[in-house]
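Design a sequence for this backbone.
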């Protein structure tokens, strides 16, 4: 198992390197395949030996080999975060056909988080394909996060899809533009992967986290109440909390 965890960590860091490409290029409508990775400052292609996840950043001292421009700490952060998410998937759910699906879901949440932080958008190229993937895999291999003894099933996935989509459509209408279409499609995707209970927990956890950060920004940073804060990162965090700890949170709630 130690070897398996190590392999999963390496896989996660490698895919995390690709996620950095997606985060940079998707909101700019650029291909994530061509051209190859290059320094955003001097535009020189990055050699393979300078593109080793985590390790290359340390060996280069956080700077481009050619122009010496500082490399954002976000690059190794995304690689490490994705690697840790993959390890957590293996630890919580074990080895099986569900692994690649949950890996992809966690990676999608990471990409959504960083794109929304930078551009205040959630790309349709992630959420719209994610909805049918969620429906199909929930029917075959995905467990119900609130009852890991059973598969979520197509019915549960469809109910989750409509719960997430309709709930956030209503919120968007009532907020008069405070919630965007990207959030609606994101929560429809979350519901298709994890069901209606996860939609509710994701909404609650995301709102709680968003409120805490908003209060912090107002008190410490002096931001006004009308300062725009992207909600996608908080929803992504709420979705991951629901995925990994939904069953335990429900159990704690029912014991009250």
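Sequence:
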């Amino acid at each position: 198992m130690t070897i398996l965890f190590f392999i999963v960590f390496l896989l996660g860091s490698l895919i995390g390197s690709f996620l950095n490409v997606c985060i940079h290029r998707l909101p700019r409508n650029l291909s994530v395949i061509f051209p190859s990775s290059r320094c955003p400052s001097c535009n020189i292609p990055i050699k393979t030996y300078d593109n080793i996840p985590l390790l290359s950043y340390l060996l280069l001292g956080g700077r481009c080999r050619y122009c010496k421009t500082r490399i954002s700490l976000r690059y190794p952060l995304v690689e490490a975060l994705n690697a840790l998410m993959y390890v957590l998937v293996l630890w919580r759910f074990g080895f099986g056909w569900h692994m690649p699906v949950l890996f992809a879901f966690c990676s999608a949440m990471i990409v959504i988080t960083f794109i929304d932080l930078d551009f205040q958008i959630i790309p349709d190229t992630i959420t719209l394909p994610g909805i049918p993937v969620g429906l199909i895999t929930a029917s075959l291999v995905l467990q119900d996060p609130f009852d890991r003894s059973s598969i979520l099933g197509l019915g549960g996935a469809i109910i989750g899809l409509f719960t997430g989509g309709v709930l956030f459509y209503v919120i968007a209408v009532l907020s008069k533009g405070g919630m965007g279409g990207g959030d609606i499609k994101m929560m429809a995707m979350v519901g298709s992967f994890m069901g209606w209970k996860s939609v509710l927990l994701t909404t609650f956890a995301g709102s709680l986290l968003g409120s805490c950060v908003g209060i912090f920004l107002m008190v410490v940073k002096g931001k006004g109440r009308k300062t725009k804060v992207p909600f996608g990162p908080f929803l992504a965090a709420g979705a991951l909390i629901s995925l990994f700890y939904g069953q335990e949170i429900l159990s704690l709630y029912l014991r009250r």
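The two ends are 37 Å apart (CA to CA).
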